[in-house]
Specification:
InterPro entries: Na/ntran_symport (IPR000175), SNS_sf (IPR037272). The protein is mainly α and 512 residues long. The chain has a single domain, classed as Up-down Bundle (Amino acid/polyamine transporter I). It is 74% helix and 0% strand. The protein is built from 21 helices and no strands. The longest helix is centred in the last third of the chain and has 35 residues. It is globular, with a radius of gyration of 22 Å. The two termini are 19 Å apart.
Length: 512
């Protein structure tokens, strides 16, 4: 690792603090904020869920987010080199995080392709009356319909999916090649304000629809008895953990591009609370629209509630078709919102990998982008086959539920208990920040977060053995699901074998 990488004159930097905050918000605000969070709230106590959600945000989400800001800013490196400096034997943890991000990027871009396709399909409501059959059968051409029995029926490439996916890849590649300030920051300055405006328009339109109040009533009516259910608290910590882009290695890479004097804790608070606000707004818009759909269909709201890709690409097209006016405009607006949210996250996911590769192999940005996008692009072809939906769903479940959570747990244990550098990180944050993190930060990371993340892992494994995920065959869950996590771990071990001790001047510079 060359000490020149640490030189602020040669290393990429954000043009402004606002640019960094918008980019960090763009990474945190993704597809899950729109299609996952509303369902999680509904399923876990409605309005009462906000209590465990904000407890999780205060005791895990914000503390880890600010910790990663400190790590990246202090050492001015991507995750592998950063953890090497924390403890030489732990470089592999950074590579595992980068590997998880790489694996997520391989399928996330395909979902961006779906969004582009449905922007087009919104014109004239080309999905017809049976939106489920259109998305699953005609568009994705999923093996054996949506039945798990078709899991291993790979089939051929689906051109309707491949072409928009290639367009999405081209846009991501262009932004990454332009670098941090001229690419990622520029895109964030344009896309994030546009995303917020589009969401506000969607929410305002949704809450004025007939039946919207019924949907909001279902969403926010509190069930305080749910607070006694451990699964609700696990869901709250899981939502906060996944939605803030922590343990992806993203925030470590992003904060490494900050100037030497930056208010770290204030930036973390802005990003964390902005993400929570966006999720809350999205939940209002989604359930107002579902209330309208339920009223039009003559069924209870609970019968139209869905999450994930089904909500976005099956249920919402039904909402769009049922609108009394400007259907196509609303459809284009909704799927463009999904795309804008997704592409800022996609760029951040790959930037974490690119930063790590550049520092390890002393590559130019162009070469690193070519290698990373090229390899991810080849793997992403798996998800545009007839069985692609099954493989995407399986990899997403295992990488998020086990890869990210275990990596986050290892990160906290390393800093707080193994290397015992938590006080040093706190001093670095406080020396930079107007808002001091205080003892709550230390207590959360040393005690609360490790216990709860450990419980999440154990609880998840217990659930896995109790009931196979989505009824998929065991061979698929092991080979595609667990195999994807194991592959990232093996690659991390291989890449960390030839790690070199950091230069004294680099370590000294990082600890200033």
């Amino acid at each position: 690792m060359s000490s020149s990488v640490n030189d602020e004159q040669t290393r990429d930097q954000w043009g402004t603090k606002l640019g960094f905050i918008l980019a960090a918000m763009g990474s945190a605000i993704g597809l899950g904020n729109i299609w996952r969070y509303p369902y999680v709230v509904y399923e876990n106590g409605g309005g009462a869920f906000l209590i465990p959600y904000f407890v999780a945000l205060a005791t895990a989400g914000l503390p880890i987010l600010i910790l990663e800001y400190s790590l990246g800013h202090r050492y001015r490196q991507g995750a592998p080199a950063t953890f090497h400096f924390v403890s030489r034997r732990w470089e592999g943890l950074g590579w595992w995080m980068a590997g998880i991000s790489f694996m997520i990027a391989t399928y996330y871009v395909v979902i961006l392709g779906w969004c582009l396709s449905f922007i087009w399909y919104s014109l004239g409501e080309q999905w017809g009356e049976d939106t489920g059959a259109f998305f699953i059968g005609e568009y994705l051409a999923t093996s054996s319909g949506a039945a798990p029995e078709g899991f291993w029926e790979l089939g051929g490439l689906q051109w309707k999916v491949l072409v928009p996916t290639l367009i999405a890849w081209a846009m991501v590649y262009f932004l990454l090649q332009r670098g941090v300030s001229k690419g990622i920051e520029m895109a964030s300055r344009i896309l994030m304000p546009a995303l917020i405006v589009m969401l506000l328009v969607i929410v305002l339109r949704a809450v004025t629809l007939d039946g919207a109040a019924n949907g909001l009533d279902v969403l926010f009516t509190p069930d305080f008895s749910a607070l006694g259910d451990a699964a609700v608290w696990v869901a709250a910590y899981g939502q906060v953990f996944f939605s803030l882009s922590i343990a992806f290695s993203i925030m470590i890479a992003y904060s490494s591009y900050l100037p030497s004097r930056t208010d770290l804790s204030n930036s973390g608070l802005i990003v964390g609370l902005s993400n929570a606000s966006f999720e809350f707004l999205a939940a209002i818009g989604v359930f107002a629209a579902l209330g309208f759909l339920a009223g039009v269909s003559g069924v209870p709201v609970t019968e139209v509630v869905e999450s994930g890709v089904v909500l976005a690409f099956v249920v919402f097209p039904q909402v769009i078709s049922a609108l009394p006016a400007l259907n196509s405009v609303f459809g284009v607006l909704f799927f463009a919102t999904l795309f804008f949210a997704g592409i800022t996250s996609m760029v951040s996911i790959l930037e974490a990998v690119i930063a790590a590769i550049r520092e390890k192999f002393d590559l130019s940005r162009r070469a690193a982008v070519n290698w990373v996008c090229g390899m991810a692009g080849v793997i992403s072809l798996l998800y545009v086959t007839e069985g692609g939906l099954f493989y995407l769903d399986t990899v997403d479940h295992f990488v998020n539920a086990y890869g990210l959570v275990v990596a986050g747990l290892a990160e906290v244990l390393l800093v707080a208990w193994i290397a015992r550098t938590l006080n040093e990180q706190r001093e670095h944050i406080d020396s930079m920040s107007y808002v001091k993190v205080g003892s709550w930060w230390t207590i959360s990371l040393k005690f609360i977060t490790p216990v709860l993340l450990g419980f999440m892992v154990v609880y998840g494994l217990w659930q896995e053995f109790a009931e196979p995920y989505e009824g998929y065959p065991g061979s698929g869950l092991v080979i595609i699901g667990a195999g994807s996590v194991l592959l990232t771990l093996l690659l991390a071990m291989a890449l960390s074998l030839n790690s070199r001790a950091p230069h004294d001047d680099l370590v000294h510079a990082g600890k200033k």
